[in-house]
Amino acid sequence: MAALLSGLALAAGITSLVWVRLGRAAVAGVPWVVLAAVAVVGTYVVPGFAAAARSPDQRARADLIAAQRDMLGHAFGATAVEAVVAPVPSPDPELITRHSREIAMIPVWDPPMLQAIFAGTGADSSHERWTAPALGVYWSAEAGHVPAFVAVHERDLLAAREADPDLTWRDAHAEPRAFGTGAVAVLAGAASETGLPHYIPDLARPESSATLLRSLALKSDRIAFSPAAETFAVLDSGTAPVAGIRVRGAWRRLALAWALQSPQMLSAGAVSPGSTLLWPRGVVQRLERLAPFARFGAPYPAILDGRVVWLAPGYVTSVAFPLSVATEFGSRRVRAVRSGFLGTVDAHDGATAVYLLPAPDPLSAAWAELAPDIVQPLTRLPPDVLSHARYPEELFEVQLPLLLAGGAQGLPDLVRRGTVGPTASASARPMWLPAAAIGGPPSAVVLRAVAVGESGAVEAVIDGVVESGTPRLHVVRVRAPAVMNQDPTPGWVRGRPRTLAFPEGLVTVIPLFAGTPNGNDLPRLAQVMIDVGGVGGRGSTLEEAIARLQAALGAPPAASAQWREARRWFARMDQARRAGDWAEFGRAWQELARVLGAPRDTTP
After folding, report:
1. Residue 151 in contact with residue 184, Cβ under 8 Å?
2. pLDDT at residue 423 in the model
């Protein structure tokens, strides 16, 4: 077609020159009309007939599919390490025993249930709330890596003003009522005999848990900066220094009063000289004012050195990208989303920083190079902050439809439509698990989504995890789908299924709760169900459910408490060996020998 159009265009040009000498309009007009007609037919008519005569798979050329797959990997980071699990026809009796360590790390609590318990047992009102509990892994010298949920108590001043129109200015903007207070932590994998959480007063000593609501031991209980802190606040002059604006001088007071639309800023009675204005106090607002070229996702809390620190992933986007597909991200329609930044905000003093993550995408790296005073390099990222970095959740939700499209089989449809959205089923809604439960880094958490087909069978397991500071995607496709146990229990609320994919098959754990988040009674953990290939076990605890499942499978019992303690001391001994701490190595060796009942070596 291109050669034909080129020939007609050349002929039309020649006849136009001839028309200059002959003076006959038809000589020049006919070739141009023919050229226009052929161009229209070749551009619109012929492709339409050709497309109708071929199927979508025939229209999508293999080289185009490969090219788009590569470009989508660059645009959304949707490049995953794939594996296949083919469950055996009958469950493997040794599966539970072989993977008892990973299964024991599964949380038995759902964040909405914990949030309802916190709200029902702690002081709570329409303008005071607990943040959604965030799963993290914390190190303890006695217990090793301990998964725990952390929630922060914050105050929503906008909700307080709506609830009480007569709320005074000082109650809304001055300490102490302008701030939240404290945080709580609970063991992720345990519940009391009454079905309530085990609260951890000190994350360095998780074994000292309590069944009554107890706040975490923090260096400061004041939560001055949080996601709900949408309005400004004023600290008195005698307060310890924080990141804010000193209120002094008539001109500065006038400027602040105008900017905040708050006449009280002009009054020395309302705002004493030398006070500090905290503004903005929202976590995302602070990060995006510091780094306006990035968009930050939902912040989550972590406890670092006795302080509450908010962490949020930072994204860069582009509205144009070759061979990409359009998706909704926030309030924009974009064709590329990458996450190369990590933002932190101290909940107490407001210290705000943006760090460049390892192996960043080219766009994030370019912004970091252009703004070295804003984006701090990886070398300045504290190791404890990096250990709590999580896979960017908003990016994961964009990647899910691409990963669930079925690889090359699904890409032709994306080529034709040119769009992609959150088309994954509700069963694929992601949830957080300790990475140790999937054999990953013991100090990390993993974002896992489970794709379930129309028949209720698991079809794929998708993981997003941060490994050595770099986000990674893993996809396990189930070749022979294993149907999860769907045994109904009247009167109880079924929690989110936790599915672990092992080479021998799938293990699914489902907590059952008595009570609902919106009811009058506090939700309680009633039972735990565990399922392997349709064979299930139930108990009041995960350990009891595992024991009953093993009895049903005819498998030997899982490791005893003594064996688990021995494995814990061995892990500490190995860690001390890698660190070169031979004193700790010797102590761990002695404890391991004590647990195993080995005779003491008295040889000098």
Report:
1. yes
2. 43
d(CA 318, CA 383): 31
Residues sharing a CB contact under 8 Å with residue 569, sequence separation 6 or more, in sequence order: 588, 591, 592, 595
Q: Is the pLDDT of residue 340 over 90?
A: yes
By the 8 A CB rule, do 245 and 229 touch?
Answer: no
- What is the pTM for the complete model shown? 0.80
Per-residue b/e over 244-267, b at no fewer than 16 CB within 10 Å? beebeeeeebeebbeeeebebbee
- Percentage above 90 pLDDT, the chain: 37
Which residues sit opposite 168 in a β-bridge?
none
422 in helix, strand or coil?
coil
- Amino acid, res. 502: F
**Tens digits of residue pLDDT in 539-584:** 999 999 998 888 888 755 555 555 666 767 777 787 777 777 787 7
- Which ranges in 405-457 belong to alpha helices (H)? 411-417
**What does the alpha-carbon distance between residue 205 and residue 202 come to, in Å, rounded to a whole number?**
5
DSSP string, 266-279: G-TTTS-TT-EEE-
Q: Using CA atoms of 385, 587, 147, 152 in order, give the dihedral in degrees to the nearest 10.
A: -60
Written as six digits, the tokens of 448 are 């896992």
Q: Within 10 Å of residue 180's Cβ, how many Cβ atoms?
A: 24
* Of residues 77, 89, 190, the one with CA closest to residue 504: 89
**Residue indicated by tokens 């933002």:** 343
Q: Compute CA distances 459 → 403, 454, 456, 476, 531, whole Å.
A: 12, 10, 9, 9, 16
| Angle formed by the axes of helices 582-596 and 561-579, nearest 10° | 160
State the Cα angle at 518 between 512 and 520, rounded to 5°. 95
Domain ranges (residues) in the chain: 2-53, 107-285, 561-596
SS (H, E, C) 370-402: HCCCCEECHHHCCHHHHHCCCCCHHHHHHHHHH
Mean pLDDT calculated for residue range 279-298: 96
Position with higher pLDDT, 342 vs 547: 342
Query: What's the pLDDT band for 604 if we cut at 50, 70, 90?
Result: very low
DSSP collapsed to 3 states, 502-554: ECCEEEEEEEEEECCCCCCCCCEEEEEEEEECCEEEEECCHHHHHHHHHHHHC
Give me 276's structure tokens.
């500090």
140 burial level (CB within 10 Å; 0-12, 13-18, 19+): middle
Model confidence at 450: pLDDT above 70: yes
**Structure tokens given for 442:** 């013991």
